[in-house]
Structures
1.
Amino acid sequence: MSKAKIKVALAGVGNCASALIQGVEYYRHVQHEEEAVGLSHLYLGGYHPRDIEFVCAFDVASGKVGADLSEAIFTHPNNTIKIADVPKIGVKVLRGPLMDGVSGPLSDVITVDESEEADVASALKESGAEILLNLLPSGASEASKRYAEESLKAGCAFVNVTPTILASDPEWAGRFKEKGLPLVGDDLTDQVGATIIHKALLETLSRRGVRVSETYQLDVGGGTESLNTLERARDLKRAIKTSSVSSVLPYPAEIVAGSTDYVDFLGNRRDSYFWLRGLYFGGVPMRLDIKLSTVDGPNAGSVLLDVVRAVKIALNRGEAGHVLAISAYAFKRPAEILPPDEAEKLFETFVRSG
Ligand SMILES: NC(=O)c1ccc[n+]([C@@H]2O[C@H](COP(=O)([O-])OP(=O)(O)OC[C@H]3O[C@@H](n4cnc5c(N)ncnc54)[C@H](O)[C@@H]3O)[C@@H](O)[C@H]2O)c1
């Protein structure tokens, strides 16, 4: 039997939104888990990706505002890979409040649409949205907070995909709890992102007795988000990634994890470099040097599909405030960082229970 639809609104129609919307189409007709290549769960708590319906969207970029969501996701400067044709959705992208959404290097690639700002809370209510995904550029912290306020006003659960500190802030968590709404975040963990790979590497080596003394993980990318991160969120991103990576080692080590630079011809691709040095049996030195190549947008897809469906489950159960079981599994900076296997178990138990 088909489940009720999950009504989702988007703040920011960039590469991440594009991958998510295309992903729903890509997996729409897949019936069996074993055929769902690239997904952690085809069904989650009984929900299939096709149960997700996009009912409302906000952006500020000229060309995206006023366009059908199915067209806006392929509009400049979005440059992520195309994995599916998306039929007309019937949702026009509304002009959101700009605030600090477009500044620094982003101003060179985004022309701000001049039309009147929409009333976000009213639009959310009218659309019947249950969950608002915050997909704004890193560093757009005032605008992110504004969408969180509007989400509270409209009675929507809030998913903070960005590194702005929101879900892990007890004050915001308290406000969502008071309103009886779930809140998850901050800063999504990619499916095969540098952070999760770096953590797995360090965890395996330390479990096998290696004493890692120094390690770095640095990357270059060509999406708008890489350009934006250069000026606006490099320090914040580095702090979040480094504390997430450090959490898996039971001893102190020199760790650097962060974004390095923007290389426009890479498009939405990202190359991540891992390097480490340590000592194994008898104090014998070892080194490891690896490169990972991925595309940013799709790297968020599988995790986002899990998050949206898990938040719907939280809504169904009347869970309110910060939901650690979802945040610890799917985000780099939850209120409490758990070891990856523990976070995964907590998530699976959450989905199955109740
Ligand atoms: N794999 C991933 O893509 C991934 C992983 C972890 C975190 N994130 C986070 O997700 C967020 C989105 O990433 P992206 O690659 O889609 O970025 P993007 O730059 O491609 O898209 C951001 C969109 O937000 C729009 N925008 C800017 N200001 C706005 C405002 N005030 N109101 C409404 N829209 C506004 C822009 O026009 C653009 O369409 C970033 O904060 C990023 O750090 C992404």
2.
Amino acid sequence: MKEIAIEELKIGVCLSKDIFNDLGNIILAQGTEIQFRHIEYFQNHGITHVYIADERGMINKTDGTQISASPKYQELNTNYEKVLDKFKQLYYNIQNKDYELSLPELESHVKPLVDAVISDNDILGSMRMLNNQESYHFTHAVNVSMFGSMLGKWLGLNVNNIYLVAMTGLLHDIGKTQIPQELLFKKEELTFSEMETVRNHAKLGYDLLKDNPEIPREVLAGILFHHERSDGSGYPSGLREELTPYLSRIIAVVDVFDAITSDRFYKKGISSFKAFNVIKDESFKGLDPKISDVFMSNIASYFINNKVKLNDGRIGEVIYVNKYALNRPLIKIDDTFIDLSTDYSLDIVEVY
Ligand SMILES: [Fe+2]
């Protein structure tokens, strides 16, 4: 899909992303064929850009150029979008209270995506190019499912347990269907009581699914405890690490990673290297360091040979990632090497 200015919008093209109002309600759904009255509505309501379908098989890069997509990427993208659509449908149906979750049906959509993650050691390269413009609200669930599966593989889990991680990742925030949606889209800082309401999503998700005999106990526990922290500072129960299920601890790491690296409507996501700093700090406070270390060192190794931009504007290439300083790799710029693990005046601000 591509973003287009309202002035360039033509009658008859299809929206490839829902349009929400300030309260988080859909005002025009994905797939709607644009009519003249829609353009008038956008202009009257200050909507300046919308997303429409673009040429298939092309990837829009951050610098505005397009490159051809590999068949592997196209397949991943197709499976990703299928799971995303299914999850969105599920989310709205649960919100409207007219739907009983069928786990086998959901699993049948998720498995091709997880199988690609399990079987392809180089999948992260394609994953990083996925640039779906759908709301973070929905992409986060699919991303946590994918990153969780990948981390499960790196931790040596068997296939069945990886599927459990994937399902938990997809459903971990399903309790958010049960809280006022405007809180999820609020731009201003939440009040204490609003924060308490949002935090209740873990318990509400558990309550929503606990009587469904198809949902494995591991998935239920993962949903309930994905915000617990090993120092007891998490919620809903303030469990310490040894009492928090392993699967919840896996989800906690990838949940934080995707939350801070994804673009939101109110802020841009941070680069993966900056995210390593945050995860490292969080690991002192409560993420399981044995799990977060495995995640970060595997992710970091994918960035070797990657172009990065430094805070002084120079562009270089990642040459080596030191496992004791994952966030500060060795960079090559022309014939000069810069070791960020010793030179703290420089920082990576963008990863290409
Ligand atoms: Fe959550």
